[in-house]
Amino acid sequence: MNKYILCFLMFPLLGMSAITRSQTDTAIGLIEAGKYGNDHLALAAVLTFDQKTERQKANAIYNWVTHNIAYDVEALRKFPKRPDDLAGHTLRTRKAVCDGYAELYTQLCRDAGLQAACIEGYAKDWLFDNGDELYIPRHRWSAVRIAGKWELVDPTWGAGNIYQKRSFFRWLIAKVFHKGKSSPRNLRFRYKYDPQYFAQNPEEFRLRHLPSDPLWQLTDSTMPLQVFEAGDSAVRAFNVCCSNPRQSDPALDKIATYDDRQQLFEMADRAYAYNKRYSTVMALKGTARAESMIEKVLTDTTIQHPDLMVKDANNDLKRSLEYLREQKKSFPTEYNKLKQKNKAKSVEAKQQIRAVRTNDKRIIAQSKKRAKSGEAKSSRTRKKLATVRRRASGLDTSAIRNIESAAARKGGADVSAIRDSIDARNVRIAASTLQLAKDEVVIRDAIVASALLLDTLGKSMVVEDSLLRREAIERMGMHDSYDDEVKHFNRLFKQQKYTVTDTLLDDYFTAYDTIVARMGRLHTARVALLDLHKANVRGYEQYKKRSGSDPQLPALYASSVTAYREAIDSTNLSMNLFLSYVAKNKKLFAGLTKMAKRQIRIADYMEQAEKAREQLEAGSVARKKAFDMKENEKQKQTTQRAIKMLQRAIDKMER
Predict the structure, then answer these.
(1) 8 A C-beta contact, residue 515 and residue 578
(2) Angle formed by the axes of helices 306-393 and 280-299, to 10°?
(3) Separation between Cα atoms, residue 230 and residue 133, nearest integer Å
(4) How far, in Å, CA of 125 to CA of 18, rounded?
(5) Mind listing the pLDDT tens digit for each residue in 511-548?
(6) DSSP code of residue 244
(7) Alpha-carbon distance 428 to 418, whole Å?
(8) DSSP secondary structure string, 377-443?
């Protein structure tokens, strides 16, 4: 199988999240290749000339490769044929996919006197979701022996990442107006050196990399493929309970000296036993083994029992075709799952985005409703306040309206009734004043409590807004609803927004409505109290006219007028407090509306990002399927050519 192309799909689009960084010297090996650029022996000598230890040599080579070899994005479209001298081709062109990176790094290490090997395996690229089943290994990296220990190195992922050639927001605008499409033509490579992929701890390395040959896990216990597929948390749990690094193994020292064919013979059975979905590896082995026997039959006249070799080769080729058919049968299952999963992720993302919009639209509607209602109530209150102020300006407290010089009109029964009315009103005034004082305390306490609630609400909304932005950033990085990066922030956001913030917001709305309603009733009661005070003032005036001289009357009248003014002042303060409270909340409701609209805009960006991701993933899945079908057919043709060679060997024997 053409692994040169197979691994192109495994490059970390837009970068992969960082894991624990290894102890890597980031300064060595950063030289200008110059005239040594096309000679890997000379380049290895120059890179390692001043390096004293094996680690420094391997490190310097890693730094040079990751800084000077660009990822071949064109391979995403053209599927070029694998060159015979891949390391030399990579050095000449200064670009490669993962196979070229691994071959060049391994070759330079060997040129520098280090033992090294290329490793094929499974890697979690941007398309991978926890629980996905892995079929064919699509990535290659290197292993280098340093101070008696094998270390794992991935120069491809250490070199940089792929990104869309336009800024994401311009890309979104183009997508909205159907002027841009997500395709390999729009992808570009960006150098972004990452030292963590040099000599990383094997248990950390296998969070995202898993060799098809389990021997290269470099641990004392083989981690099952299902654990790797389950996700990072499952891998970490396995590392804690069941595994420790073991980086010295004579078997690996021997394997590293083999050529590609010998390594295939050595690892194929282990790779297939480790992952029964990877039947192609047995086809590769069977075809290579058959070709080796057929070549001997055709070229070596001294071999004994060529008929037995021909028979074995024939059996190997038949089994190879069966393994290829087995692999091909898995494609519909594999890719239908990926297609359905892509659709399911899109549906889930749309539901989550719709929930954000629905919730924020509810907040906008409730805020606007209360702002409008508050404005109407404020308008009515201002009119009442103007009336109250007119009462205050028309109230004369300097005298009893010249009542002392007025002629009294006797009327005993009327006088008693007037005095009884004044006394009755005084009782009502006292009771009402006491109740209003209690109501004022309740309202002020409620306002203080709502202010504390608002403070908590504000902090919650800041956290909520931050989490939504973080989720949006992850989605714009082509992460989806199944990825831990999105799931983490989405889970925290939903908890914060729908449980914490919404509860606080509903409590605040309830508190606001309650306070406004109480203030409304309070003002009605205060206006009624003012009417009582006014009636008393007028009552004293009538009482004087009808009762004649009463030495206590001036004091009673003055006291009544003073109480009336105090009631007017209290009403004025209360209504101004109401207007201030409503005005502050009007600004709050405007802020809530603004925040909700901003979140809706973020949701719009997330929706566009999800559409782009869905399209990009659908295209990647389609390309993977087309590539696998093509490679399976190529391998089938290779096996059939071997069958023709076998027929020539049979014809030769019959002659």
Answers:
(1) no
(2) 150
(3) 9
(4) 13
(5) 999 999 999 999 999 999 989 988 888 888 777 776 66
(6) -
(7) 15
(8) HHHHHHHHHHHHHHHHHT---SSSTTGGGSPP---HHHHHHHHHHHHHHHHHHHHHHHHHHHHHHHH
